[in-house]
């Protein structure tokens, strides 16, 4: 972190600390010897005491289509109350790089594209409303962290890689339904929580991409699943290719010296940890 650009980092409140990102962030902060509070869901005491630095990790991911009202409640309504009534030193709202869907510019200043006629855009619309409240709610030291596809041990298969692993552990086989040249941005959880912490404790406000800045092809994932996990790999005939635009992380590099680990470095270790945990 840049010298002289940080707030007092001692007191942190993680809302959504029982979820994937939140639980890893809490573990990281505790390992740093930091005081970390993890309120229970529905604990209204958060509106009656100082919260220090708040990281808002409450949200829905894979099940947002079946729970539209819960999605808006988590991403907008409850967050609105916290932003309006909470006593905090800084507040960091976790959003998603999904909001860049359909656009070629992935800088934090980009004009984005949403369509309420598309059911999948409910997620993006709700996150963008939360982001807009951050930027225009009139509170100081409020930030937005747009997270990419985060690779790490989690209870539910929320991202593409975990869905492949679940299929492989169950059947010994993985069929790719998108072409092997398709790419996505993946970031290791250790890098993600480190950058979130730096963003939360900095004097900088606004939007920050939390991503690797590089696309990883399905073919690289397939090779690792075959060589390390021993899965049989196939590709669905005429599988479509994803359109991919690399996520711009120049802002995180410039302000925080961010240098994420390459996929080829962390992914084999992640697969061994996954196998050990899941027993497959």
Please characterize this protein's 3D structure.
Strand 1 (11-15), helix 1 (20-31) and strand 2 (35-37) form a beta-alpha-beta unit. This protein is 37% helix and 18% strand. The strands form 3 sheets. It has a 6-stranded parallel beta sheet, sandwiched between helices. Strands 6-8-10 form a 3-stranded mixed beta sheet. Helix 1 crosses helix 5 (189-200) and helix 2 packs parallel to helix 3 (121-136). The protein is an alpha/beta fold. The protein has helices at 20-31, 68-85, 121-136, 160-171, 189-200, 218-227, 250-256, 263-278; strands spanning 11-15, 35-37, 53-56, 90-96, 142-147, 149-151, 173-176, 183-188, 206-210, 215-217, 232-235. The termini are far apart. Residues 1-7 have low confidence and may be disordered. The protein has a domain at 11-151 and 187-213 and 247-260: NAD(P)-binding Rossmann-like Domain (Rossmann fold, 3-Layer(aba) Sandwich), CATH 3.40.50.720.
Short summary:
It contains eight helices and eleven strands. With 280 residues, the chain is an alpha/beta fold. Helix 1 (20-31) crosses helix 5 (189-200) and helix 2 packs parallel to helix 3.
CATH class of the domain at 11-151 and 187-213 and 247-260: Alpha Beta
- In whole angstroms, the N-to-C terminal distance is 39 Å
Structural classification? alpha/beta
- How is the CATH topology of the domain at 11-151 and 187-213 and 247-260 named? Rossmann fold
Sheet with most strands: strand arrangement: 2-1-3-4-5-9
* Number of separate strands: 11
Annotated CATH architecture of the domain at 11-151 and 187-213 and 247-260: 3-Layer(aba) Sandwich
The outline comes out as globular
Strand content: 15-25%
What is the helical fraction, as a range of percent?
Answer: 25-40%
Largest sheet: 6 strands, parallel
The CATH superfamily label of the domain at 11-151 and 187-213 and 247-260 reads: NAD(P)-binding Rossmann-like Domain
Alpha-carbon Rg, integer? 19 Å
Report the order of strands and helices. EHEEHEHEEHEEHEEHEHH
* Helical segment count: 8
């Amino acid at each position: 972190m840049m010298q002289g650009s940080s707030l007092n980092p001692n007191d942190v409140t993680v809302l959504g600390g029982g979820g994937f990102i939140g639980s890893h962030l809490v573990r990281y902060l505790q390992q740093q010897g930091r005081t970390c509070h993890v309120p229970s869901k529905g604990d209204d005491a958060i509106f009656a005491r100082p919260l220090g630095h708040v990281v808002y990790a409450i949200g829905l991911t894979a099940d947002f289509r079946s729970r539209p009202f819960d999605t808006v409640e988590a991403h907008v309504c409850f967050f609105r109350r916290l932003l309006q009534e909470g006593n905090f030193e800084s507040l960091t709202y976790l959003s998603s790089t999904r909001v860049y869907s359909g656009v070629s510019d992935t800088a934090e200043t980009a004009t984005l594209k949403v369509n309420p006629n598309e059911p999948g855009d409910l997620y993006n619309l709700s996150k963008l409303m939360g982001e807009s409240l951050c930027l225009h709610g009139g509170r100081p030291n409020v930030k937005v962290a747009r997270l990419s596809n985060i690779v790490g041990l989690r209870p539910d298969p929320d991202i593409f890689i975990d869905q492949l692993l679940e299929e492989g552990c169950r059947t010994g086989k993985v069929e790719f339904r998108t072409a092997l040249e398709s790419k996505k941005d993946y970031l290791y959880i250790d890098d993600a929580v480190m950058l979130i912490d730096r963003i939360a404790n900095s004097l900088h406000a606004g939007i920050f991409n939390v991503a690797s800045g590089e696309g990883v092809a399905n073919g690289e994932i397939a090779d690792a699943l075959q060589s390390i996990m021993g899965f049989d790999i196939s590709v669905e005939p005429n599988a479509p290719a994803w359109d991919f635009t690399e996520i711009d992380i120049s802002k995180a590099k410039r302000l925080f010296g961010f240098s994420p680990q390459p996929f080829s470095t962390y992914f084999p270790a992640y697969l061994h940890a996954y196998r050990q945990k899941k027993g497959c």
